[in-house]
């Protein structure tokens, strides 16, 4: 029988080793991804279109699609999600209806991404007759982001002190004006940071996008700004393969001879984009916080 | 007098305008909420609607669906999905078994052993691990884990076991961060009481913190399992995609998500194979609903991120 003190020391050692394992795991993963991938990334890789049969393709269009489909989806989700969040934080009464709304948010947040992909395929690709489009992909992504934005908005509004709400109401300001002119401005830094952090997950999303935005890209003409022309990068009605789907397709069914090299580069690029986006979100949140609240 | 009336008239206009603004604003909020409800309802409705067609329109029996042979192109075609259900169950349980002790250990380290700097170091580590896209996990699994399994355990490398390993890494951060929250929620007074009685830290952790936080820790494991069960591409890239019933963990296999990923693009719309894939999606939905239900039973509000 070991003494309690020895047991305590052994336990502490084990937990420390496990914690160290997490750090090593992360450094190992990042090290591997960047060691393999960073040398591949150059100007040509970032700007040229992918190839279907021969070596030497880039991921320029996929990179553009990745960002563009997220932007499109934010146009849909931000107004709706913020609206839902304001409702839950400020206007929802206790009762079965509010419970149902919360359940719906939870259900949406826990949908497996492939299920969202199938739903999107059925509704946005097949029923609408659009075929594979960036708009369909953006709508599928919206299903993911909507519950996150609702949640973030609700939390940010709830974090504001009661005093502000009550002071405004006591001055005779209506509830709606209190929300718009008193509560929302102080909640903006929190909402904004939350939206950006939540939406960053969309960069890596593949299963929901492969069946909605598709696994192909058309040749694009980056001088064409007519959003109704299918060769315009801005057209939402064209198929748009994103980076993560491209990595999957290269390894699942591609004939490109340098698919491993391109996958290495695209993986590193994708992780780099996610990391930079997160750093940017935090920086922006802090900057907004300082500017809007006059505190450090 | 007339001056006062004019004032009150313009005052009334402003009030009316404000009221209208408030009403319109509330309408916008109500519309957003209605859309959230509509989308959640529509996902369940359409997937169930498509998923029951094999049994209603094509008269597939539950016995045939739960048999072990999957060969939609054979003659006669067979649609036994048991191998996929088994594969999903095995990789999910396997990943939970491997990830739970590691995640608990890391969570205890953060919450109990080094609350200050442990959190400061491990929180960003967990955030970055969550942020790495699942395709990248799958790709690294293919490049590193599959050869590793082949060389050190045998088989061709693409296997249920490789799937378990990839999923373990993927759910580690999810399980850990929920577990940290659960442990932190244990009141400080209780821990101080334990220390005041002369208990060591390990005695306090093992007999007090873990027990007090048990519902939260179980919630953490459920979240991890839900993520593992629904994960598609990372698993599909390493599991080997053999629609046979795997005899060992080192055999290639398939899961519900991997067969959907593989076949959805090829199965012709309107065939029985196509609709059976939707039936499999119904099972994914049911498991996700079950996880929500259990988490609610465990008495904790859902963590979305």
Main sheet characteristics of chain B: 2 strands, antiparallel
Query: How many separate domains of chain A?
Result: 1
What's the SSE pattern of chain B? Answer: HHHEEHHHHHHHHHH
Widest beta sheet: strand line-up of chain B? 1-2
Helix content of chain B: over 70%
Q: Largest interface, with Cβ-Cβ < 8 Å? A: A-B, 91 and 88 residues
- General shape of chain B: flat
How would you spell out the order of helices and strands of chain A?
Answer: HHHHHHHHHHH
Query: What is the CATH first-level class name of the largest domain in chain B?
Result: Mainly Alpha
CATH class division of chain A: Mainly Alpha
Q: Can you describe what's shown?
A:
The complex is a heterodimer of chains A (296) and B (305). By secondary structure, chain A is an all-alpha fold. Chain A has one domain (41-293): MetI-like fold (Orthogonal Bundle), CATH 1.10.3720.10. Chain A is 71% helix and 0% strand. The longest helix of chain A has 35 residues, at 259-293. Chain B is flat. With 305 residues, chain B is an all-alpha fold. Chains A and B meet through helix 1, helix 3, helix 4, helix 5 and helix 6 of A and helix 1, helix 4, helix 5, helix 6 and helix 7 of B.
């Amino acid at each position: 029988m070991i003494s309690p003190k020895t047991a305590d020391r052994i336990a502490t050692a084990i937990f420390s080793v496990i914690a160290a394992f997490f750090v090593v795991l992360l450094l190992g993963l990042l090290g591997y991804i960047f060691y393999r991938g960073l040398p591949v990334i150059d100007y040509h890789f970032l700007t040229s279109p992918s190839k279907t049969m021969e070596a030497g393709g880039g991921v320029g269009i996929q990179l553009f699609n990745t960002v563009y489909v997220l932007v499109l989806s934010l146009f849909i989700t931000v107004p709706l999600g913020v609206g839902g969040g304001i409702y839950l934080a400020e206007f929802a009464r206790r009762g079965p209806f509010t419970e149902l709304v919360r359940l719906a948010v939870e259900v949406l947040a826990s949908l497996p991404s492939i299920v969202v992909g199938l739903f999107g395929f059925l509704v946005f690709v097949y029923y609408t007759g659009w075929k594979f489009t960036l708009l369909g992909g953006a709508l599928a992504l919206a299903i993911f982001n909507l519950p996150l934005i609702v949640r973030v908005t609700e939390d940010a509004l709830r974090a504001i002190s009661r005093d502000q709400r009550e002071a405004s109401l006591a001055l005779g300001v209506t509830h709606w004006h209190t929300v718009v002119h008193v509560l929302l401005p102080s909640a903006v830094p929190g909402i904004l940071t939350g939206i950006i952090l939540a939406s960053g997950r969309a960069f890596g999303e593949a299963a929901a996008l492969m069946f909605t935005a598709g696994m192909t890209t058309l040749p694009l003409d980056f001088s064409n700004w007519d959003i109704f022309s299918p060769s315009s990068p801005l057209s939402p009605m064209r198929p748009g393969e994103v980076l993560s789907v491209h990595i999957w397709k290269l390894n699942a069914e591609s004939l490109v001879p340098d698919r491993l090299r391109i996958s290495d580069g695209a993986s590193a690029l994708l992780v780099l984009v996610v990391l930079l986006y997160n750093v940017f979100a935090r920086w922006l949140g802090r900057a907004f916080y300082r500017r809007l609240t006059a505190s450090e | 007098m007339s001056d006062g009336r004019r004032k009150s008239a313009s005052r009334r206009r402003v009030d009316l305008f404000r009221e209208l603004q408030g009403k319109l604003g509330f309408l916008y909020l109500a519309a957003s909420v209605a859309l959230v409800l509509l989308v959640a309802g529509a996902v369940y409705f359409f997937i169930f609607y498509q998923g029951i067609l094999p049994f209603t329109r094509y008269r597939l029996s539950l016995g045939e669906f739960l048999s072990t042979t999957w060969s939609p192109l054979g003659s006669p075609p067979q649609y036994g999905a048991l191998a996929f259900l088994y594969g999903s169950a095995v990789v999910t349980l396997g990943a939970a078994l491997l990830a739970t002790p590691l995640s608990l250990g890391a969570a205890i380290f953060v919450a109990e052993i080094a609350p200050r700097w442990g959190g400061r170091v491990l929180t960003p580590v967990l955030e970055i691990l969550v942020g790495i896209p699942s395709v990248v996990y799958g790709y690294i699994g293919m490049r590193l884990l599959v050869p590793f399994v082949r060389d050190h355990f045998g088989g061709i490398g693409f296997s249920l076991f490789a799937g378990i390993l990839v999923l373990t890494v993927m759910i580690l951060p999810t399980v850990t961060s929920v577990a940290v929250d659960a442990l932190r929620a244990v009141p400080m007074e209780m821990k101080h009481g334990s220390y005041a009685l002369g208990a060591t830290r390990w005695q306090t952790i093992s007999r007090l913190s873990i027990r007090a936080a048990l519902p939260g820790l179980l919630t953490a494991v459920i979240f991890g399992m839900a993520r593992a069960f629904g994960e598609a591409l990372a698993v599909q890239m390493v599991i080997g995609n053999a629609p046979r019933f795997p005899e060992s963990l080192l055999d290639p296999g398939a899961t519900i998500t991997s067969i959907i990923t593989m076949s959805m693009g090829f199965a012709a719309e309107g065939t029985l194979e196509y609709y059976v894939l939707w039936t499999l999606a119904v099972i994914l939905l049911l498991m996700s609903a079950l996880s929500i239900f259990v988490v609610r039973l465990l008495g904790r509000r859902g963590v979305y991120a």
